[in-house]
Each structure stands twice: as structure tokens, then as C-alpha cells.
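Exercise 3.2. Students should predict the tertiary structure of the chain below and write it as C-alpha cells, then compare their answer with the key that follows.

Predict this chain's 3D structure.
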Amino acid sequence: MTVIPHGLSNGGFVRDLSDTLCVDAIPLDRIAAEVGTPAYVYNARAMRLAYRTLETALAALPITVCYAVKANANLAVIRIFRDLGAGADVVSVGEMRRALAAGVPAERIVFSGVGKTDAELAAAVDAGIGQVNVESSGELKRLNALAEVRQRRVEIALRVNPDVDAGTLKEITTGTADDKFGIAIDRVPAVFELAAKLPGVSLRGVAVHIGSQIVDLQPYHNAYRRIADLVHQLRDEGHIIDHVDLGGGLAIPYDREPRVDATAFAAVVRETLGALGCRMTIEPGRYLVGSAGVMLARVVEWKEDLARPFLILDAGMNDLMRPALYKAYHPIVAVHGDTGDVTVDVDVVGPICESTDRFARGRAMPRLKAGSLVAIGAAGAYGAALSSEYNSRPLVPEVLVDGSRVAVVRKRPSFEEMVGLESLPPWMEDSPAADRPPTAELPEPDRAAE
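Answer key:
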């Protein structure tokens, strides 16, 4: 059988006796035949396994898991984690409403994000959200005013920027002094003093999140050690601190990276923060869903009219943005493995009118024919969530597989649904030429002024 790359096997994608790639026992070509391509396919059992692996590793610690909705905001995905006992971490009022619609109790929702508007803060207060992670002194004052008007007292934590490099891509680093997130660690005590005077907020915790796709655990150790020192300092100054929000960022394998050892991560948390006696929250996203998803696409053409060959797919950067956005690696395999052993180094691209519409450069691929089906692996996180209708291409459908059960959990919109929110202004509507407003004529140039 054809070897399955690391980034696919970790999500429970396997080959059957005919060398066809399957999710659980469901052949992916059967799903593609029913919903078309491109299409996302998620493995519910792989999501549950990832959650239980993390939950087991953290069992001895007082930690609540809140799923980071931004990784994959599909209602069915959120519901999977709600049913496992997770809360939700959201970064917009839309994500908050999705979490609530999926059945997550408001008191188990953490509202993060660096640019919350007054309308979003008001919605969080009105919904009774369990915790707002405040990112600035200005946001603190705005939230307090909104809470006072409503005669409410909102539970908050201050997001601390510890100035620790996560050792990951710069584009997904969030905890250094150059990043926009949080409050500089040396300024946090002053903000605590301010919060103590505000009647609309209750500040008893700190939050930290240093980035995404973190492979090396040392940056966690560095950041959490700085947070522990900060908690001791704040307590010495008379503040009650009983909660630490750990953020997320745990990596998954895309190529040859090891999957982060959840037990080793738990040991870091225990060593750095365990003696504080605080309850804690962790907010994984990619770790829970990334490996559990693939994007299916069909080959449009094997193009050899240029200096090197191109494998052109019917999926584009609007469907899976990460390679164009960060030059991120995703495994790409033929769904049917009977393509022979001969491979060619080829650029795998899409149909979008952009040179950045490229999934891989110089990737060894079999010489696939038009119509062949491929699976792009490790696409369960930040795939559908970052997709768009660029080039007026419809959003990709999402399919959930749970054992022998299959359901479309987001359909592909029709053209009419795509343009349904748009309208022509009255003067552009079809009407006889005589009924249209006259076209204004430009005045003749003032020749005397020349």
C-alpha cells in the first residue's frame, strides 16, 4: 500500500485493501462523488481522541479546556467539544454566537481578542460570558462603563504580553514586544491598580498566549515562569489572583514534526505554575482539529508548457489560504494509491488569478491525470475558517464523518445564494434608455487659461 504521510495518519486517515484513502471506513472518493470538489472532510473520532489525549495528560491539574473556535468554527465541530465537556474561546461576537448556538453555556465561554468593539463587549456582558480577557487599559475602562450601565460586574483576566518568542513563524507569534497583543508585563501592576477602583469588573486572573504551532516546549516554560513571578508580585502588592489562562498554541505534525507530547506539556505547567494554587484554563484549537481534516480536490490538468511542470487543481488559495499566507506545508496525496512509484517534482497550484495560489513547490507527485482526486492533509484548522469567495468562487462544503455516519455540515452555496446580499442601486436597474437619468457632460476646458 502507498505510505500515508504523517500529517494524514495522525487524523485517522487510512487506506483500504484497494489502496483508496478513507476516513474511518468511508472512502474519500465516495464523499467527493456526492458533494463535489473542493470539499473539506472532518473525522469526528480523531477530534475526540485528540481531546481525550490532552484531557488525560492534564487530569491531575485544575484545568478547564476551552476550544479555540477560530481554528474551525463549524457548529458541528464546536458541538463535538461541548459534548466532551469543553468550553469555548472566542475572539469575536460572531464566534460567541456560534458557541452559544452550538450549546456551549455562556459561563464556559472566554472572550479574547485585541480589538473588541463596544458593541462586542456589550454583547458579552449581556450574554453573561464567563470571562473577558482584557487586552488594554482602554478596553478595561470601556468594559467597566458598559458593565456599570447594566449594573453588572464582569469577571475578567488581563492578557499579559511576556515578551517571549514562541520559536514559531513570525506571522503566528503573539507574545513578543513587537506584537499587538496584551499588556506589557511590566505595566500589568499599574493596570491592576486601575481595575481595583472600577466597580464594573472583577479582576482576579492573568492570561497569556504566545503563539501558534509551537513545537518546542521551552517557550512555554519561559512564558509561564514569567507569569508565575508576576502572580507572586501582584499578590505581594495585595491583589487576589486565583486564575491563570494558559492560552493555546500546541503544534500538530504537518510534515515530519513530532506531535507535541501532551504529558510533557502538562509537566511544564505543573513545574512552572502548579505551586500557585490557581485554577487554570487552556485554549487549544489546531491541536484538536488540525490533523482531523482534509481538503479534497480534483486535478484539472498536468501542465508542461512552462519551464517546469504544474499540477493544477480545482481548489485554490481562497479555499485553503495557509500556503499562500505563510508558505505553510500541507501533505498532498492521491486518494487512489495505484498511481505507480514514479514521481515528478511539480508545483501544485490552483486556478486563482494570483501567483501566490500555490499549495506546494517542487513536490514529488505521481503523474496524475485530469480528474484524479487528491487529499490535502492537516487541513482541519484554519482551512475553512480562512476561506473566502475570492474570484467569485463559492465557499467549500464541509462534511463530518463519525464512524459509519456521514453528514454535510456546511453546504456549497449556489450562485444565487452567493450574490443574495448584493443589489444594484436603483439607477442601474434595467429600464428603457429614455427613463434613465441623463449622463452628465464634462464642461469644455477653459482654453483662455492655457
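Discussion points: The first strand starts at residue 13 and ends at 15. Residues 218-236 form the longest helix (19 residues).
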